[in-house]
Design goal:
single chain; about 0% strand; about 475 residues; mainly alpha
Length: about 475
């Protein structure tokens, strides 16, 4: 029997639960009774393939046909599979079903539901369920409290965690573990309270709980979010002093922080340090480094990084190529951008509408409107549907050249194709009218804009304020604005 079960487990690990089912007839042939372990394995395997309906159907068949009595683990397997895929209410319903049946829920079953409710932000329901559990004589454990603490922190209520800490220690003799402290530290850092997070780290050390790599990474990230790179570097160095080796996430956090502050030399030093220590940078680190180099105009260095990716690094992804193309276009290197784009097109890999949008936008901003329009028209021939971003970029390109008839023609075409304009679409056209001082046309276009429920964004408002400042009579030409002013 162990051999048969091992075969089923192997098939499920290979995401071939269907082959696992082919083993079941051998059970019947050899007269081996079915047990819950076998079906728990199959249900877990089906969920791993994201076949939720099939997993639930198998569970129902077990119960209805009395193939074998589901135990707490069976229920937990189904509940876990459902909750991980966002079916919180179904998970809760299954718990209620357990409460009414022969197999009563245990702490693991309750914890699955409490965690799901917390992840949905439904803290009140999670706390109520924990209280129900207590009334039935099932005491919460560290997992229960970690879920609640995580839920509070994600809702930006880290200040309420202290009450739970007290309840854990005083009433239940449960003490926070490293995961508990890390949840709080991460939550505080995301709220910008990095100094408080450091105090929590000192507290955990005082309680005999040693910070791990995640602890340091969370605080580093918190300092980087605030632009306080000295603090981030101090934490990075203190981690090394504590004999905790920084991982690729540690390096990526600090490299990203330096790049955002245009301290590219410091970022490059760390980037080289990764390979010197025998580690390999991942795709995130490479992309971050590329973006940082293009930000300060170090195109040659960016090209070397990209060449390194092609030779020994991770395979470039859509974000890598978008960064390169955007960088080239930003500095007017249209030929280099188009050369790379043509290579990517020929390979036929990693090409989607996002990359075409970058190219169309880059060509427009570099005054190559005809080439941009040619790329735009090409989309229909290669079977790639433009999205609202594509149309907005093309409309903006025409507006920048004062070609409003063409811009409005694109607007009508997008609607005919079932791609509806958004607020940005109309704002781009209005900005074009303002830029060319074609106020009367803008006034009539505004009626359509307002009629569709769209309004001026900050950029358009800034344009309009400048125009009115130079020519106050413009306000009288726009009835909608005049009536708003008089209200």
């Amino acid at each position: 029997m162990m051999l048969l079960l091992s075969s089923i487990k192997c098939y499920c690990l290979m995401h071939r639960a269907d082959c696992g089912f082919s083993v079941l007839p051998i059970y019947l042939k050899k007269g081996i009774p079915f047990d819950t372990v076998t079906f728990n394995t199959l249900i877990r395997g089906i969920f791993a393939e994201n076949k939720v309906k099939d997993a639930v159907e198998l569970f129902k068949n077990l119960v209805r046909d009395k193939i074998c009595e589901p135990d707490e683990v069976t229920y937990a397997t189904v509940m876990n599979g459902l909750s991980k895929r966002g079916y919180t209410q179904k998970t809760l319903s299954l718990l209620r079903l357990m409460e009414q049946g022969n197999t009563k829920p245990n702490i693991f079953n309750y914890n699955i539901v409490i965690d799901a409710l917390c992840k949905d932000g439904n803290l009140d329901a999670a706390i109520n369920l924990m209280n129900e559990m207590k009334q039935k004589g099932i005491l919460p454990d560290i997992v229960t409290y970690n879920s609640l603490i995580d839920g509070l922190c994600k809702l930006g209520q880290c200040d309420k965690v202290r009450t739970l800490f007290s309840e854990m220690a005083v009433n239940l003799n449960i003490y926070p573990d490293v995961h508990t402290f890390n949840i709080v530290i991460d939550g505080l850092c995301k709220e910008g309270k990095v100094a408080d997070a450091e105090e929590v780290m000192k507290l955990m050390v005082g309680k005999g709980v040693e910070p791990d790599r995640f602890t340091y990474n969370a605080i580093m990230h918190g300092y980087c979010l605030r632009g306080q790179l000295d603090g981030a570097r101090r934490i990075f160095d203190s981690m090394i002093d504590k004999n905790i080796e920084p991982d690729i996430i540690s390096y990526s956090i600090l490299i990203n922080g330096y790049c955002k502050k245009t301290k590219v030399d410091e970022a490059m030093q760390l980037f080289r340090e990764i390979s010197q220590k025998g580690s390999k940078s991942n795709i995130v680190t490479y992309n971050t480094m590329l973006q940082g180099l293009f930000k300060v105009g170090r195109i040659g260095d960016a090209e070397k990084i990209y060449a390194g990716m092609l030779s020994t690094g991770p395979t470039p992804n859509i974000y890598t190529h978008s960064t390169l193309l955007n960088g080239y276009f930003k500095y007017g290197l249209v030929e280099e951008a188009m050369s790379l784009f043509i290579k990517l097109e020929r390979k036929g890999e990693d090409i989607d509408i996002t990359l075409y949008n970058v190219v169309i936008n880059g060509l427009c901003k570099n005054g190559k409107l005809d080439e941009a329009h040619a790329v735009f028209e090409k989309l229909s021939f290669i079977g790639l549907l433009p999205n609202v971003r594509t149309y907005n970029v093309m409309i903006n390109g025409f507006c920048l050249k004062g070609l409003f008839d063409e811009a409005k023609d694109i607007l009508r075409k997008m609607e005919d194709k079932g791609c509806f304009p958004n607020n940005l679409t109309y704002n781009v056209i209005v900005q074009g009218f303002l830029r060319c001082n074609r106020i009367s046309e803008m006034a009539s276009f505004m009626k359509e804009m307002v009629g569709r429920g769209f309004s001026f964004d900050a950029t358009t408002t800034g344009f309009l304020v400048n125009v009115i400042r130079e020519n106050p009579s413009v306000l009288d030409m726009i009835p909608e604005l005049r009536s708003e002013k008089n209200q």
